[in-house]
Amino acid sequence: MSEQFDVIVIGGGPAGYHAAIRAAQLGLKTACVDNYAGKDGKQALGGTCLNVGCIPSKAMLDSSKQFYNLTHHLEVHGITTKGAAIDVKTMVGRKDKIVKQFTGGVATLFKANKVASYFGKGKLLKGNRVEITAPDGKTETIAAANVILASGSVPIELPFAKFDGKTIVDNAGALDFDAVPKRLGVIGAGVIGLELGSVWKRLGSEVVVLEALPDFLAAADADIAKIAAREFKKQGLEIKLGAKVGKAEVKKNEVHVTYADKDGEHAIVFDKLLVAVGRRAYSEGLLGEGTGVEVDERGRVVVDEHCWTGVPGVWGIGDCVRGPMLAHKGFEEGIAVAETIAGKAGHVNMDTIPWVIYTEPEIAWVGKTEAQCKAENLPYKTGHFPFAAVGRAVAMNETAGTVKVIAHAETDRILGVHMVGPNVSELIAEAVVAMEFKGSAEDLARIVHAHPTLSEAVHEAAMAVDKRAIHRFG
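Above: the chain sequence. Below: its structure as tokens.
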């Protein structure tokens, strides 16, 4: 007879492990099935985020930032350096150590919370049973009153640029280069392309980003995207818009790429090519016959606003369902579903999920863009404030960027906050809190902000909504 649980989670990534731990905290007998293996072939909990996404990319971004500052920005402080060099093997080793620390941390949390961990691929069967296929091919079946599907997502592979793990790579491959590529091509100017392109550009690579869309960072507010594009250009990150790649061939350890834009067809050669055109839900082999769970045309598990699939006791969370593919969105969905199963209130507000791109300068936003307000015929007003007028930013020598607050023209309720600049990944949290509590631009403007801090840019932008910013001309 199958071992019986209250909750089984399929997937140990951000959404899955949060769901499992919270369910266990609530007194539910919980199991988590995860198939991700680390470099040593052993189970590595945490999914893409901890293994080859959020955490390792930030480690590499920080290492490359340190090197770039050393070679480009310290002279203004009176600090001179000569002969600075980067040891890529050491940098990658540091990243791997951090990854192991965090994946091991999740395993420790499972033990502390008495979550049963299974290493293998999980498949939902009829009757809320889960079949587990271990790496050696052996299978076993467990069952639960509730099954949470959290199978995550995988990189989209282009038919003409298949990943080989060496020359044409996905995000995981771009985190494991053994040397700085002289010429790096990136297909896609999204979060992954910009972040990893920035890493290798700072370390000395010639980076060209090919983006098929005509607009840069179309998901962000246009004013913020414009400033970011200008700063990336200053850094030497070459971004070609409206560039549709049609062919990528590996010849003698080089990648020969053909792309077309408004000026016709072009050819370009790279030493490495990163394909970063997005991710797709990973639902292959997730569902057995007769489960009743539906998937849409994009392979996503169909759920309602409460993450319920419509099948009694079956839920879906994280990247394998609708909504933005963001780790923190998965975190909250996992917790919300666990609490709903336990008879408590569980909810995630999709309108206040922050977005962050960890480039230099950083980019962050929450809520509606100005273009969205126009499209929805919302009366609105805006306030801007540049970091160049913020004392702390000037002292840090990081003055690029601005904060933009969008508020309803009649009620003053905050509709969106958009930022590009130093540490905005942290500053955006204040805007999220204000919006979650239905705050107004005036609320932000009347809150005392410490001086001198970067957060003063948020304060002054809120004041600028009603044209009363203090440190701004005009």
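Residues 361-464 form a domain with the Enolase-like; domain 1 fold (CATH 3.30.390.30).
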